[in-house]
Specification:
Number of strands: 9
Mean pLDDT: 78
Strand content: 35-45%
Structural class: mainly beta
Radius of gyration: 18 Å
Helix content: under 10%
Shape: globular
Largest sheet: 4 strands, antiparallel
Strand order of the largest sheet: 1-2-3-4
Number of helices: 0
Distance between the termini: 36 Å
Order of helices and strands: EEEEEEEEE
Oligomer: single chain
């Protein structure tokens, strides 16, 4: 029936969570962004920031079409860090927000690589490696190939192969 709830989930830990924005990626996964004071229940392994810093951190997470969290990450550095909005373009995530953190946020060679004071806005770009969620990628010891596991069933996987390779073989095992 139209308008029937298909799934619903809580997302949070022992503190306070606020979700300010959500957008679907090209593969139909829901990406959410906001802020959290919870020290656990937010992040997963193999993401940009696994541990919460002090204060309030921004959060970003991806959910499957069935409502399961694929991955989650904190984004912050010791002050009041909030993600207000996100945009997904191709394989990249663009995040905007506000911060009172004066260290470990900006990268060199950008518009403003040092904290201005009081409260600054921020823009962060994350590369699309996060679209694989908790799926792990390992390089085999000789460096000529990689393994992707567990098999990300019901999801699309994009494999980019450098043009410099003269020959490429892809084997898929279940």
């Amino acid at each position: 029936k139209a308008g029937q709830r298909q799934w619903a989930t809580y997302y949070g830990g022992t503190g306070e969570e606020y979700i300010f924005d959500a957008e679907f990626n090209n593969n139909g996964y829901l990406v959410i962004a906001g802020s959290s004071t919870s020290p656990s229940g937010i992040s997963t392994s193999n993401v940009w920031q696994v541990s919460k810093s002090s204060g309030e951190d921004g959060i970003i997470a991806m959910f499957s079409s069935s409502g399961n969290r694929e991955w989650g990450s904190y984004i912050g550095s010791g002050g009041l860090d909030r993600i207000h909005s996100l945009t997904l373009r191709g394989d990249n995530f663009y995040i905007v927000g506000s911060t009172t953190s004066n260290t470990s946020f900006a990268t060199s060679g950008t518009h403003q690589s040092t904290y201005g004071g009081s409260q600054d806005g921020f823009v962060v770009m994350l590369e699309g490696a996060l679209t694989l969620g908790e799926t792990k990628i390992d390089r085999v010891s000789n460096g000529d190939c990689f393994q992707l596991y567990p098999n990300p069933s019901n999801a699309l996987v994009q494999i980019k192969i450098p043009a410099a390779n003269a020959e490429t073989a892809i084997e898929i095992f279940d």
